[in-house]
């Protein structure tokens, strides 16, 4: 849990006792590769913090193809924010990409956490601001970049994803077919 503490302390200061209390609101979980944490049609009750491993959020489009919209690796959060905030049915699935160790918190426990530790309000505000800013940048890139430029940008900015995440999931995240991603990669190598 030291990983989580180090992450928190990038944003806020907590004593040992405060950290122990904060941690008590979370449920540690180990997941297997391709284990679903939430499926489409379920009420989104939880947020997940990745201590080790990788999760992804995706939906199944009208053609029955999985479309990955988000990844979460170490020290990142993931949930269906819209459904979580409203405690309603999600149109997304959340799944482990690889064997992972995560912390899970549900909405009710998060509210209690925020009441008991108001400093966590600041923490979550800062996390949401960063996530929102990243989302804004991604939307802009989708509009501005060609498909090849999108891949080059992604592989330059996040080289560890390209090495770590299966290529069919990278393609899904970028809105490509795996075949098209292979064509781009072959073209860039030549």
From TrEMBL:
SUPFAM superfamilies documented for this protein: cAMP-binding domain-like (SSF51206)
Record-annotated Cyclic nucleotide-binding domain positions? 33-117
- In Swiss-Prot or TrEMBL terms, this protein is called Crp/Fnr family transcriptional regulator
Q: Which organism is it from?
A: Candidatus Chryseobacterium massiliense
**Entries under Pfam families matching the protein:** cNMP_binding (PF00027)
Q: What is the lineage of its organism?
A: Bacteria, Pseudomonadati, Bacteroidota, Flavobacteriia, Flavobacteriales
